[in-house]
């Protein structure tokens, strides 16, 4: 837990909400306080993401490799960067390189959610729904920091509910969450009366579950970061959590530094994790096809996504469709020209060669039996 000296503010009050324990990082102390600043009304249209993708869908197929070439739908998988779709208005979401950023600790001993920090840094005044959805997709992995009034470690030791900091807006209250311990410290510095505040890291799924279970209108990310803050209503977060893998297995692997066995670990995880595919009816004949990527040398890769938001991020107008491991096994078994899969091509992404998909292919044998 990091203890910060803080100053009290009229619209930011404690809310005693139970939070599960977390590992305690080292202590850090805030610097001199800065003038308080009210949180602006930065919202995201509930219509922008009420949950996308069907609960079930039709049989889907890959394009016929012997058919006449169709217009390119995606760039080839790359090791250094992810595809960057363009639109006429240049309204693209915050995308990311294929490789995750190096881990950082803006406060020693307390790891940042580097992907979320990078996405928030791209937010500008009057952020678009596209930008905010881009922030939301990068939030859906790793952890968030919560701001606790008093010593979180002592409260947990005494079996007390954590006194979580919230922002009040009339009768509505918003939970505060942060991409880093430094963002917590910046929030503390905008207070006016000294007190003690601690920061506790929690898995993002635990934070969202707590928010949804509580009487919160939404979540504010990095509230003291000026135009780089974001506000999400609870309706949006509820749908995002419902369509996420509860264990965040794939997202956790993709957000971590690449190791020699990362590709194999992702391949094994695909054998037991529901994914999503991008489908379209571009041919106009009612045949629904799955989006794929193709390398310069002609190798074909099926595109898989860990969450519907990853498909929305590409801005291609494709529809997300849930894709179970058995369906993936069936497609791979029926299309031996597929060289593998590319996961989350909006970044961070990874190419998983067919040789690393043995655990998936075993399911194809089981299904046929």
From TrEMBL:
It comes from the Bacteria. Residues 16-38, 63-85 have a biased composition (Low complexity). Residues 116-228, 255-357 form the SseB protein N-terminal domain. It holds the Pfam family SseB. Residues 1-42, 56-89 are annotated as: Disordered. InterPro entries: SseB_N (IPR009839). This is SseB protein N-terminal domain-containing protein.
């Amino acid at each position: 837990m990091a203890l910060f000296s803080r100053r009290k503010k009229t619209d930011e009050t404690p809310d005693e909400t139970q939070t599960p324990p977390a590992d305690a990082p080292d202590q850090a102390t805030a610097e001199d306080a800065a003038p308080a600043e009210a949180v602006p009304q930065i919202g995201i249209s509930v219509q922008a993401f009420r949950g996308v993708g069907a609960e079930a869908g039709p049989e889907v197929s890959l394009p016929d490799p012997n058919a006449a070439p169709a217009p390119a739908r995606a760039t080839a998988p790359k090791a250094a960067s992810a595809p960057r779709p363009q639109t006429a208005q240049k309204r693209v979401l915050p995308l990311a390189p294929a490789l995750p950023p190096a881990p950082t600790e803006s406060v020693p001993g307390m790891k940042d959610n580097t992907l979320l920090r990078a996405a928030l840094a791209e937010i500008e005044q009057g952020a678009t729904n596209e930008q905010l959805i881009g922030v939301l997709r990068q939030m859906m992995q790793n952890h968030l920091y919560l701001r606790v009034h008093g010593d979180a470690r002592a409260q947990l030791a005494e079996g007390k509910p954590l006194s979580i900091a919230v922002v009040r807006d009339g009768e509505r209250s918003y939970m505060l969450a942060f991409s880093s311990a430094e963002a917590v410290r910046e929030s503390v510095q905008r207070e006016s009366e000294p007190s003690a505040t601690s920061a506790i890291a929690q898995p993002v799924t635990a934070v969202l579950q707590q928010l949804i279970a509580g009487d919160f209108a939404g979540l504010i990310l990095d509230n003291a970061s000026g135009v780089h803050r974001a506000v999400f209503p609870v309706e949006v977060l509820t749908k995002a959590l419902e369509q996420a893998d509860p264990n965040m297995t794939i997202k956790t692997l993709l957000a971590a530094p690449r190791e020699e066995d990362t590709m194999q670990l992702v391949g094994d995880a695909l054998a037991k994790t529901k994914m999503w595919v991008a489908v379209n009816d571009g041919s106009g004949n009612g045949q629904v096809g799955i989006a794929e990527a193709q390398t310069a040398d002609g190798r074909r890769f099926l595109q898989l996504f860990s969450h519907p938001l990853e498909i929305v991020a590409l801005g291609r107008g494709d529809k997300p469709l849930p894709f179970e491991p058995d369906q993936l096994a069936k497609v791979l078994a029926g299309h031996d020209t597929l060289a593998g899969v590319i996961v989350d091509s909006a970044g961070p992404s990874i190419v998983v060669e067919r040789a690393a998909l043995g655990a998936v292919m075993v399911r194809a044998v089981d299904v046929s039996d």
